[in-house]
Design brief:
Elements: H1 5-12, H2 15-35, H3 46-57, H4 63-75, H5 83-86, H6 96-108, H7 111-129, H8 134-211, H9 215-242, H10 257-266, E1 271-277, H11 284-304, E2 310-316, E3 320-327, H12 345-355, E4 359-364, E5 370-377
Parallel strand pairs: 1-2
Antiparallel strand pairs: 2-3, 3-5, 4-5
Length: 391
């Protein structure tokens, strides 16, 4: 069975309900005069009934004008000799007309206009009825007062809604300002603490290079200098990004994996890397994501699997690029770095890859090692009208 609640609600609310009521009043007048007048219908009453019913349909848009028309019709009752007909069953349903007109005067006009129209309509009702009637006062002043109360509540609701919108806008502005302040604080701390420590590392490692004659020590210190220098550069880019500006310099790309492997080898890790197929088809963001995945996976291998060889494979095809990092089981004792970090490495990698439209899997291998694999889609220009893929 179809749901009739929606159409019925729209029909019974607003101007459609007024038009329906006006049609029902007109039908009542015609039906009563045709069927209940016992063969002697007073069709002159339609000159009063039909226009009075029409004022109901116009009460929302022109409440004052509809009231004036209703008053003119009521004053014409005596000259047309319709008092007897309209004060009987024929006119009973029409008592809702002054009720609705006065309510509209209360909700849609000023106090002076509404009160004047209500007084005039009440007086015309008294004249049309041929004497004083309490009902005339009840169906005019009562609805007008009710309309004034409803109007005041509507205005209060509008004011509250406007204030609520202002508070929401202020809340959003405060949240944005709080985020901006927090970003600035983090950038300041990064610059003052982390960047300072990295600078000290670079200076001390450079001094150690000049003071030693042993090749292995010098090579290790050179790797420390290179890693600290790169970290210092990336910290500077991160500080500028947090401060709201565009970071100066290029972000790490997939082509820099060879340099990453060289630095990792300098620390004593057995790292191998091979490129298969067309690997130069990723966009800038996806290429940086691939580099960060490799960087994080190598770091995890250094912390959790000391002495284990690490094999990096970057394979490209028509659909995209697959990055796989596999390390064997640990071959040395704990490196003392397993507890370092916040434990968000895999989650961060997965979020990066997902943002680039790819997928990441990770887990142990059969020989007790660990494997991380990321699949990144090939970069292509978006066609006009094509939706931007979500995360």
């Amino acid at each position: 069975m179809p749901d009739l609640a929606g159409p019925l609600k729209r029909l019974l609310i607003g101007s459609r309900a007024d038009a329906l009521l006006a049609a029902l009043l007109a039908a009542w007048a015609i039906g009563y005069l045709g069927l209940a007048a016992h063969g002697n219908p007073q069709w002159t009453a339609l000159l009063f009934a039909l226009p009075l019913a029409a004022t109901v349909a116009a009460r929302r848009r022109w409440p004052a004008g509809a009231t004036v028309v209703a008053c003119a019709l009521l004053l014409a009752v005596l000259p047309l000799d319709l008092s007897a007909a309209l004060n009987g069953p024929l006119g009973t349903p029409f008592l809702c007309v002054p009720f609705l007109l006065c309510y509209s005067l209360g909700t849609q006009t000023s106090v002076a206009t509404g009160l004047a129209g209500t007084v005039l309509l009440a007086a015309c009702l008294q004249i049309a009825s041929g004497g004083f009637s309490v009902v005339a006062e009840m169906i005019t002043f009562g609805p007008w007062l009710a309309g004034r109360v409803v109007l005041s509540r509507r205005r209060l609701a509008e004011q509250l809604q406007a204030r609520n919108d202002e508070l929401r806008a202020e809340q959003e502005a405060f949240a944005e300002e709080s985020v901006r302040y927090e970003r600035a604080r983090i950038a300041r701390d990064l610059h003052d603490v982390v960047a300072h420590c990295l600078s000290v590392m670079v200076v001390q490692a450079s001094a150690g290079q000049r003071m030693t004659d042993r090749g292995e020590v010098a090579e290790a210190l050179e790797s420390v200098v290179a890693a600290a220098a790169q970290a210092q550069t990336e910290i500077g880019m991160l500080v500028e990004l947090l401060a709201g500006g565009l970071p100066a310099g290029a972000a790490p790309q997939l082509a820099m994996v060879s340099e990453l492997v060289h630095r990792a080898t300098g620390t004593g890790l057995a790292v191998s890397c091979r490129f298969v197929g067309d690997c130069d088809q990723l966009g800038a963001a996806a290429s940086e994501t691939a580099y960060r995945v490799i960087q994080e996976a190598v770091t995890n291998a250094f912390k959790h699997a000391p002495g284990a060889p690490v094999d990096i494979t970057v394979q490209g095809d028509d659909t995209g690029v697959t990055v796989a990092i596999v390390n064997a089981a640990p071959r040395e004792g704990p490196a003392g770095l397993a507890a370092s970090g916040g434990g968000y490495g895999l989650a961060g990698m997965r979020e990066r890859v997902r943002t680039s439209g790819g997928s990441l899997t990770s887990g142990p291998t059969a020989d007790g090692g660990w494997r991380v694999s990321a699949v990144l889609p090939a970069h292509r220009s978006r066609q006009p009208g094509e939706p931007v893929p979500g995360p």
